[in-house]
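Sanity check record (used in CI):
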Amino acid sequence: MVKNKKLLLGGSVVLLLFLLSLCYSLFLHEIIKDPPNAIYDPGHRLVDVPPYPPDRHHLLGVDRFGEDVFWKVIDGAKYTLMIALVVSSMRMGIGLFGGILTVMFLHHFTFFIDSFIRAFRFVPAVMVAYIFFAAVKIDPDIPSQSLIAHQLLILGFIGGIPLTGHLATEMREFLQNDFIKCSQSLGAGKSWLIRKHILTFLRPRLIILFTRQVVQSLLILVQLGVFQMVIGKVKELKILDGISASGSVTLSLSNEWSGLIGLSYRELMLDQWIVLGPSLAFVVTIYSFRLIEKGLEETVEKNKSFHLFQK
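Expected output for Peptide/nickel transport system permease protein:
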């Protein structure tokens, strides 16, 4: 597995990004100097004020509030990655439990369950998430931890339901094998089939599916960001720049990437580099997880071929 270049490259990028984000939160933010509040020429005349375009000192520029966009993206990396990993884990748990429950214990209701799952697939996931996110945010006094927990559960169930159908289909096909029939005729019960056959069969597939779910979780975060729906609470900041009609802007508390994109939508017509930073971070991270997925698929196929050759 470690010899697969795609797996190594993708995993290294994700790990480096996460570790750099942790280091920034722990001590780098105290070492790195903040961008200047204003730039003056040698004659002490005002030349420029934030936002500043990208240069060699600030790779992704400086936003309207005088913060380095590159380090904001780095700071938000750990939160974005943890959200995607937690949501993907929840989806896998829901999908696996739901698939086993459907195939092994609720097979008499297969038609109704499959019909519900098929109907659910016709509704864009981002629209379902948007509706539930809006409902959760109705209460302004909800604690931040409760809000985040509700939002993660929503994203988990939205992806877990279609995954239930996918895994249930794979399990049904697997249970049609002759050796499963022989095992049942010899007295194997449902718990034995689940532990010794189904989970053994699904184990390599679950690892690949997990990385695929991470990619899908990141994509839905991007889409929610476009609708200005972010994970966790936000803060209102007064600004007198003649641009904001309300005299205030909404900012993410965690620098989570979807928040950096969605809550900076007005910058698309002004200073595009402010949105470019988190957008590039999403692209690089999604591509890295796709490399991990491809590397895992190649490794699993290689191991299959090796075992067949040995036999």
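The beta strands are 39-40, 46-48, 234-238, 248-252. If this sentence no longer matches the regenerated tokens, the check is flagged for review.
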